[in-house]
Amino acid sequence: MSGRGHEEGLKDLTLLGNQNTKYAFEYAPEVLEAVDNLHSNRDYFVKFNCPEFTSLCPLTNQPDFATMYISYIPDKKIVESKSLKLYLFSFRNHGDFHEDCVNIIMNDLIKLLDPRYIEVWGKFTPRGGISIDPWCNYGRPGTKYEEMANYRLMNHDLNPEKIDNR
Predict the structure, then answer these.
(1) Which stretch, 7-21, 108-122, 148-162, has highest mean pLDDT?
(2) How far apart are CA 50 and CA 36, in angstroms?
(3) Catalytic residue check, 157
(4) H/E segment holding residue 71
(5) Where are the domains positioned within the chain?
(6) What are the phi and psi torsion angles at 65 (to 5°)?
(7) Catalytic residue at 101?
(8) Of 10, 32, 47, 105, which is least surrounded by CB within 10 A?
(9) pTM for the complete prediction?
(10) Sequence-ordered strand ranges (E) for 77-133
């Protein structure tokens, strides 16, 4: 067999290939879509680097810019990438702190996918002379992924970045 067919989750997608895509200008978790993971018999990472993430400061409404890194080990579902792009775009006019944004993204993806493991890292550009880079993760409770999450959380910053990486 070559390629994925409609019987493997493609029939449920509404955004991919749609030329009339509507962009949400307010936070819109409902645009997220998932498809079946055809390789749920093994562990593997899916990684997204999203260098054009924007949100707003909840107090001043000034824009905040970040590269959002999302990595997860799927179980039964994987996120469809166009829906993820539209979802992240929906933060454009959303007012929240950096720490809230990464946790909201992680929570929405957990709800959609029920992954074995996930981590979300926002590398925000400096504003006012300081950058904020929140990182959060989750491992399915009672599994080796919970242990992995604890280990990665405790060791995620053992090799601090240099200032020349921005």
Answers:
(1) 108-122
(2) 23
(3) no
(4) strand 63-73
(5) 29-154
(6) -120, 140
(7) no
(8) 47
(9) 0.86
(10) 77-79, 117-124
